[in-house]
């Protein structure tokens, strides 16, 4: 998992909570064609595995076309079935070492909330990237852990792994995170639920 030195592909895009129709796939193709997205994570908490497989296959084609890494949230077995590029694990999901046996050398990222201790454990277990947040309040999920900008500086002192910032990131706050050394910004609501801009317009504002 390489960090982009210019960092022009700094967006780690997370799917909306529901994927209802073909409109989503059209929008996804437009967004990925912008050249700003490094990763796309499929995160559908309330969908059946069968539906995730069907949706995942469609998304995978679009990701491959635009050279975007396709990751699955929470589910190493689905990741393997889809032959996706990797998986994102929360603290309550499968242990990283067990997931590594299933996924071999695929990308595995770990949620570290606001904890250097969790980051150290993830580093020792062989994570490919570390995710911290929430930095701002979010409508996508309930914020249980609040992270401050100082955690980004602290974690940079102990690892060169890529750092993903999560939580309520939008046009008026994203630059702060990049200036404080976040490598990638995990964004969902700002793109998919933006009342002012269509998805492509929303992403184009992030420069």
List the helices and strands and how they pair.
Blueprint: E1 11-14, H1 22-32, E2 37-42, H2 49-65, E3 69-73, H3 76-82, E4 86-89, H4 96-103, E5 107-111, H5 116-125, E6 129-133, H6 149-156, E7 163-166, H7 174-179, E8 184-187, H8 189-192, H9 199-204
Parallel strand pairs: 1-2, 1-8, 2-3, 3-4, 4-5, 5-6, 6-7, 7-8
Helix pairs in contact: 1-2
Describe the protein.
With 207 residues, this protein is α/β, with parallel strands linked by helices. It has helices spanning 22-32, 49-65, 76-82, 96-103, 116-125, 149-156, 174-179, 189-192, 199-204, and strands spanning 11-14, 37-42, 69-73, 86-89, 107-111, 129-133, 163-166, 184-187. The protein has nine helices and eight strands. α6 (149-156) links the parallel β6 and β7. The longest helix is centred in the first third of the chain and has 17 residues, at 49-65. The model has no long low-confidence stretch (mean pLDDT 94).
